[in-house]
Amino acid sequence: MFSYSIVGAQLYVGDMLFVMISFLVLMWLVKIVAWKPITKMMQNRSDKIASDIDSAKESRTKAADLAEKRQTELQKTREDANGIINTAKQNGQEQREKIVEDARNEASNLKSSAEKDIEQQRQEALANSRKDVASLSVEIATKIISKELNADDQKDLVDSYIEGLGKQK
């Protein structure tokens, strides 16, 4: 066999071929047994990280969309609440005005009714006064003349006199 000599150590070509072939076989075995699974594991890890990043971006986008939608709904709810409050205020104002108007109408009706009652009582009092005056006049005339006058004639005379007094006022 061939041998080379390097400063005190001898290297044999056969040993070198054996080491080189062993190294190549070892590298081939490492490639088959370890390198492919490691690269596959690293690729899977890289894919998972990329997927997680994409998922995080998608989640962030969805969260932003949901936040915007929630904000829009909140604004709409506020506007609806303000509309309900304004409607309630308007209805309250209308109801208050209706109640005041009804009270005024009722007061007016009561006043009108009271005036009618007063007029009716005045008419009744005037009629009673006429009857009393007629009776008194008949009695006075009877006593003065000492004879009894016809009551119907006397009554007509007194009624016409009282009507004349009522027209003068």
TrEMBL record:
Keywords: ATP synthesis, Cell membrane, CF(0), Hydrogen ion transport, Ion transport, Membrane, Transmembrane, Transmembrane helix, Transport
Biased composition range(s): Polar residues: 84-93
Subcellular location field: Cell membrane; Endomembrane system
InterPro entries cross-referenced by the UniProt entry: ATP_synth_B-like_membr_sf, ATP_synth_b/b'su_bac/chlpt, ATP_synth_F0_bsu_bac, ATP_synthase_B_chain
Region of interest (Disordered), residue spans: 61-117
Ranges annotated as spanning the membrane: 12-35
Principal subcellular localization: membrane
GO molecular function, one term: proton-transporting ATPase activity, rotational mechanism
GO CC annotation terms, alphabetical: endomembrane system; plasma membrane; proton-transporting ATP synthase complex
Pfam families: ATP-synt_B (PF00430)
Bilayer topology annotation: Single-pass membrane protein
Compositional bias segments (type: Basic and acidic residues): 61-81, 94-105
Gene3D superfamilies reported in the protein's UniProt record: F1F0 ATP synthase subunit B, membrane domain
Entry-linked HAMAP family: ATP_synth_b_bprime
Stated role: Component of the F(0) channel, it forms part of the peripheral stalk, linking F(1) to F(0).
Similarity field: Belongs to the ATPase B chain family.
SUBUNIT field: F-type ATPases have 2 components, F(1) - the catalytic core - and F(0) - the membrane proton channel. F(1) has five subunits: alpha(3), beta(3), gamma(1), delta(1), epsilon(1). F(0) has three main subunits: a(1), b(2) and c(10-14). The alpha and beta chains form an alternating ring which encloses part of the gamma chain. F(1) is attached to F(0) by a central stalk formed by the gamma and epsilon chains, while a peripheral stalk is formed by the delta and b chains.
Record-given protein name: ATP synthase subunit b
Organism: Lentilactobacillus kisonensis DSM 19906 = JCM 15041
Gene: atpF
